[in-house]
């Protein structure tokens, strides 16, 4: 069994989550629950659950306050955190940059099962939780432009400077990241997801299979159908509809 604590200020929502877990994830054993920041901290520290289902907005603060309090007490977070939120658009962006799981209210059973599957995998790999530190760093800055991103591979979670990412390449439902002075890494998410995350950080989708960091663009070659030469010496094709957009970008650099 996987031990879990639910923290939400609405008893009906806590009961609803327990009902969903009983139906769709019977391997999760609820060993505690709390309705506010103070009791949430106590439950986590005393019961040390493997998973915490954590609401963002609580009556006396936020779920982030709980994590910051535990970090100050324990030095780090040693549990899987699944955030539950009704909207919080900014926070969701921070979750995605930090490779952390979240569920939108009302909780969808399919999404819940996907999250549970990821938690099982994380527990098997004994992953570190450095991405929670990254989340707290991003949340505390209260800005939309993050400088680091957490990437979850089959080996664990790794933090990278966004400025060190040279390019991303689609490989079916996976994305291969080419990072400065690092070996390429394969992430089990689509290129579309990273296009949405990185488009505000100087990245441009030049082809259905390629997302590049403009800072590492070496040359735009018009011959042979048109392609770009990157600083890692890769030659990447440009789709017909992206050529004018790339020319516009180059004219502003």
Reconstruct the topology from this structure.
Blueprint lengths: L1 E6 L3 H14 L3 E7 L2 H11 L3 E5 L1 E2 L2 E2 H12 L5 E6 L3 H9 L3 E4 L4 H17 L4 H12 L6 E6 L2 E6 L3 E7 L2 E6 L5 E3 L3 H8 L4 E5 L2 E4 L3 E5 L5 E4 L4 E3 L5 H10 L1
Give an account of the 3D structure.
With 253 residues, the chain is α/β, with parallel strands linked by helices. It has helices at residues 11-24, 37-47, 63-74, 89-97, 109-125, 130-141, 191-198, 243-252; strands at 2-7, 28-34, 51-55, 57-58, 61-62, 80-85, 101-104, 148-153, 156-161, 165-171, 174-179, 185-187, 203-207, 210-213, 217-221, 227-230, 235-237. β11 (174-179) and β12 (185-187) form a beta hairpin.
Number of helical segments? 8
What order do the helices and strands follow?
EHEHEEEHEHEHHEEEEEHEEEEEH
Strand order of the largest sheet: 2-1-3-6-7
State Rg.
21 Å
Keywords:
8 helices; 17 strands; elongated; five-stranded antiparallel sheet; five-stranded parallel sheet; about 250 residues; alpha/beta; about 30% strand
Quick structural summary:
This protein has 253 residues and is of the alpha/beta class. It contains eight helices and 17 strands.
């Amino acid at each position: 069994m996987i031990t879990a604590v639910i923290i939400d200020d609405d008893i009906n929502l806590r009961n609803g989550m327990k009902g969903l877990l009983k139906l769709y994830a019977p391997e999760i054993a609820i060993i505690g629950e709390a309705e506010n920041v103070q009791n949430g901290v106590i439950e986590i520290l005393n019961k040390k659950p493997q998973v915490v289902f954590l609401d963002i907005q609580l009556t006396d603060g936020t779920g982030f306050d709980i994590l910051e309090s535990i970090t100050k007490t324990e030095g780090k977070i040693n549990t899987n955190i699944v955030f539950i939120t009704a909207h919080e658009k900014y926070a969701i962006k921070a979750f995605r940059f930090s490779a952390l799981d979240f569920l939108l209210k009302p909780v969808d059973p399919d999404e819940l099962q996907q999250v549970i599957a990821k938690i099982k995998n994380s527990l098997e790999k004994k992953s570190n939780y450095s991405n929670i530190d990254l989340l707290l760093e991003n949340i505390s800055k209260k800005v939309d432009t993050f400088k680091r991103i957490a990437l979850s591979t089959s080996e664990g979670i790794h933090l990278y400077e966004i400025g060190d990412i040279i390019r991303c390449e689609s490989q079916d439902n996976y994305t291969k990241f080419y990072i400065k002075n690092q070996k390429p890494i394969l992430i089990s998410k689509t290129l579309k997801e990273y296009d949405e995350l990185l488009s505000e950080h100087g990245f441009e989708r030049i082809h259905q299979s390629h997302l590049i960091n403009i800072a590492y663009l070496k040359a735009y070659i018009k011959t042979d159908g048109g392609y770009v030469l990157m600083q890692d010496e890769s030659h990447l094709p440009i789709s017909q509809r992206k050529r004018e957009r790339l020319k516009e970008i180059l004219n502003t650099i």
